[in-house]
Amino acid sequence: MSYDALWSDLEDVGRAGSGGYRRFAWTSVDATLREWFVATAAGLGLDVVPDRAGNLWAWWGSPDDSGPGVGVGSHLDSVPDGGAYDGPLGVVSALAAVERLRGRGFRPSRPVAVVCFADEEGARFVVACAGSRLLTGALDADRARGLRDQDGTTMGEAMAAAGIDPSWVGRDDEALRRVGTFVELHVEQGRGLVHRAAAVGVGSAIWPHGRWRLDLSGRADHAGTTALADRADPMLDLARLVTGAREAAQRHGALATVGKVRVEPGAVNVVPSRVTAWLDARAPSESAVRAVLAELADLPAPVEESWTPRTPFDPALAAGVSTLLGGAPVLETGAGHDAGVLAVAGVPTSMLFVRNPTGVSHSPHEHAERDDCLAGVDALTRVVEHLAGAR
Ligand SMILES: [Zn+2]
Q1: Which residues have their alpha-adjacent CB atom under 5 A from ion ligand 1?
Q2: Which pTM does this prediction carry?
Q3: Which DSSP state fits 108?
Q4: How far apart are CA 271 and CA 237, in angstroms?
Q5: Helix (H, G, I), strand (E, B), or coil: what is residue 221?
Q6: Hey, is 365 helix, strand or coil?
Q7: Are 245 and 251 in contact (CB under 8 A)?
Q8: Ligand 1 midpoint to CA 320 (Å)
Q9: 321: CA distance to ligand 1 center in Å?
Q10: How far, in Å, from the CA of 206 to the mean position of ligand 1?
Q11: Which of 117, 144, 244, 384 has a CA positioned 20 to 30 A from the CA of residue 201?
Q12: How far apart are CA 35 and CA 58, in angstroms?
């Protein structure tokens, strides 16, 4: 099984007309990807063990004999019209790294697992990293089972349709205990490595980030007869939110995005009665994120819908991996990952990033050069070799 063959297996699965991918959790496309993972792992001689969150762990060596083991991998699901690399690059690279090590006769002293996390993007049921959060207990099983997609199907129903008993789903301490160290390789979702002229880098932390909802209310009125001075138009507040958040983000070294709005009644000839807007803000520090919010004080108070504190990865592990890779640059990211969920749960965790020439991600235009991807496989192979130790 060659590295390129792994990619060509995946190339057409869930491909949309846009050229991007629609690989949503617990759909038939997802089932195809999971079956591919199981078959490919089995072909490498690995034993695939699902955990109680629907994540698939393909073990090289018995996790209960000489563990805890070294976990490597990522996810195969995507955002709507996502790119080819976000997720699959980590899974493909992990499989390729194991194949190389096996091929050269390496015998690990600790077991190694390639993991395929379920439902990382949250594209269908909105909660991101659902598989890893269920595993660690950060996502309550009852809440997960009751999450609904836009057609009204619950996650529990979707899991049942995919052959998983939803009553079995939940936090899995045994599966978690088997993982002594975790490393997720991922395409970079920015241009930090382009600026550092490096193919591969090491992640040191995930920025703190939050999501807020702003309820902007006004009064519906006739667009053709209501004088401007007589209007209560919440769309103007939305405009101030969008520009204000952006300017504040610029001042505080943060990122701020208004990516979703709901306008009521939503007619071209009606002054809106109400606008609901969602703000996503992230920065290297919590204080910078809070400073952005503070500058929006003249708008209705934002309702915090989620807050994720800064997630540092294991500093000694990051430093060791960087040294092992000949001084690979160490960088932070603003994107959430399953690796962050495991780090919060106390698993010593690291990430490897592969250069993304444009920085574009969550888009059909997401790209990584083949040579950089192969450098990522080299790096991951060395990291696994180092962490699993020769016998
Ligand atoms: Zn991802």
Answers
A1: 86-87
A2: 0.91
A3: B
A4: 13
A5: strand
A6: coil
A7: no
A8: 24
A9: 20
A10: 13
A11: 117
A12: 12
Question: Residue 289 Cα, ligand 1 centroid: separation in angstroms?
Answer: 23
In the reported structure, the alpha carbon of residue 283 is separated from the centroid of ligand 1 by a whole-number distance in angstroms of 19
364 φ, ψ (degrees, to nearest 5): -60, -20
Question: Tokens 């994107």 — which residue?
Answer: 335
Please tell me the distance between residue 274's alpha carbon and the centre of ligand 1 in angstroms.
34
CA of residue 190 to ligand 1 center, whole Å: 13
- What is the arrangement of strands in the sheet containing 274-282, beginning at the earlier edge strand? 255-264, 274-282, 209-217, 303-308
Give yes or no for a contact between 201 and 238, defined as CB atoms under 8 angstroms apart: no
Distance 222 CA to ligand 1 centre (A): 45
Per-residue pLDDT of the chain (391 residues; tens, 9 = 90+): 789 999 999 999 999 999 999 999 999 999 999 999 999 999 999 999 999 999 999 999 998 888 799 999 999 999 999 999 999 999 999 999 999 999 999 999 999 999 999 999 999 998 899 999 999 999 999 999 999 999 999 999 999 999 999 999 999 999 999 999 999 999 999 999 999 999 999 999 999 999 999 999 999 999 999 999 999 999 999 999 999 999 999 999 999 999 999 999 999 999 999 999 999 999 999 999 999 999 999 999 999 988 889 999 999 999 999 999 999 999 999 999 999 999 999 999 999 999 999 999 999 999 999 999 999 999 999 999 999 996 6
30/155 Cα distance (integer angstroms): 14
